[in-house]
Amino acid sequence: MYVQTKARTKLITDAEATRVPETDIPEELRRRFLNIPNLPESEVIRHYTRLASMNFGVDNGPYPLGSCTMKYNPKYADRVSSLQKFTDVHPYQDESTTQGILEIMYDMERKLASIAGMDSVTLQPAAGAHGEFTAMLMVKAYHKKNGGERDEVIIPDSAHGTNPASAAMVGYKVIEIPSAKDGSVNVDALKAAISPRTAAFMLTNPNTLGIFDRNIKEIAKIVHDAGALMYYDGANLNAIMGVTTPGDMDFDIVHFNVHKTFAAPHGGGGPGSGPVGVKKELAQYLPSPIIKKTKNGYSLRDNGKLSIGKVRAFYGNVNVILRGYAYILRMGSEGLREATVRAVLNSNYLKELIKDVYDVPYGSLKKHEFVASAARLKKEKGVRALDVAKRMIDFGIHPPTIYFPMLVDESMMFEPTEDCSAEDLDRMADVLIQIANEDPKTVLGAPYNSSVSRVDETKAAKDSVFSTRYLRKKRQ
Ligand SMILES: *Cc1c(COP(=O)(O)O)cnc(C)c1O
Prior knowledge:
Blueprint: E1 2-4, E2 9-11, H1 14-17, H2 41-53, H3 75-81, H4 84-87, H5 99-116, E3 120-122, H6 128-145, E4 152-156, H7 162-169, E5 173-177, H8 187-193, E6 198-203, H9 216-225, E7 229-233, E8 253-255, H10 258-261, E9 276-278, E10 290-294, E11 297-301, H11 318-354, E12 370-373, H12 375-381, H13 385-394, E13 401-402, E14 411-414, H14 422-437, H15 440-445, H16 457-462, H17 468-475
Parallel strand pairs: 4-5, 4-6, 6-7, 7-8
Antiparallel strand pairs: 1-2, 3-9, 8-9, 10-11, 12-14, 13-14
The structure holds pyridoxal-5'-phosphate.
Pyridoxal-5'-phosphate is lined by residues 67-68, 127-129, 160, 162, 204, 208, 233, 235, 257, 272, 274.
């Protein structure tokens, strides 16, 4: 463990740290013998290697899980974030000893601000949804200061579920508006819903259908004229990075998903990073602390009395931020733009290859992802999106996101990121077409080549077993 001495933080052994004689510790708080198997290293390594091989990750093959941006995680970023100079730093250290990491985080804030066309950024939130929640707290603080009695947030029906959840957690009433025929924001529905009660409009552009909203300037004007704020869900930043910015589209607040756009590993509930960027009028509401650059160096400071306060114990998930920072530096602004251009090209290429077999509603030109439908297959052969997804596993391709967004029947949302090669995309299309032509019995029984065959979805969700200890308890 670490202890803070006057001069620095020092690593001490557990024995040194034990100052309290064990007899003084109440019985129920004392360390107990852990009932875990005592095994040789060889068996432990074999066990975990076997478990790892049962999983599917970006190192195994294409991973077109829509909305999640499962791009390849470059190994240089892992190397950077695991440098001992970073892993040994502790947030309780004196600031004079943490200037390096503070400088990096300060620079990361500047880089994210520039990518999004915002003025200030906080790295504090731990994931995208946490960023949304933080931003909604700021929206609330902004209206409180400006005397507005606003209790509604408008969200289109194509939005990610975290948007309404975040608004509701802050106490807002969620007003859902339907999409227009082409999948973009229904401007008339927005005009009908907006009022002096509206606090914010939450939108991702391009939206979850991969459609870029051409009316964005008009939409922003409608929202601003009503005194409300424009919130940008940045999960789809991989479609616009280096080409345009939420700032140019007149958004006021943005969240980033560093683990998506900037290639840090995620999924399985792993660590994330959800910075929030704002235009300067909102900077005073950012959570405390903020990183200040002074003539004496960098310092974490309170952000004043209008700040929403802390949203996390320490300033950001540093190991994710470091990976994202390494990625941004290595790519450069040209590289980031190129990633976007390729991601958009890959998405449209795959869509063209499969659109005669799986209908792709809502317009023809997509951004970095598109939503196809298995509705025709279901009608003709009883094969659903879920069955197609399960069968893809047998071919070593991760399934797309299914049944989201909900406005497409039997939806399959594909996001083949920029790291998919032309061969990957051709093969993915061949596999999808082959599945559509297979005997339905084969598809309905899939997967066959995975370590776990088809599970009972309802039972898996309602009756999950998380550990051997949990299993033992259940069996008693
Ligand atoms: C992933 C995602 C989120 C939530 O982000 P997390 O980092 O998973 O919390 C929000 N909106 C959209 C569109 C997303 O794809």
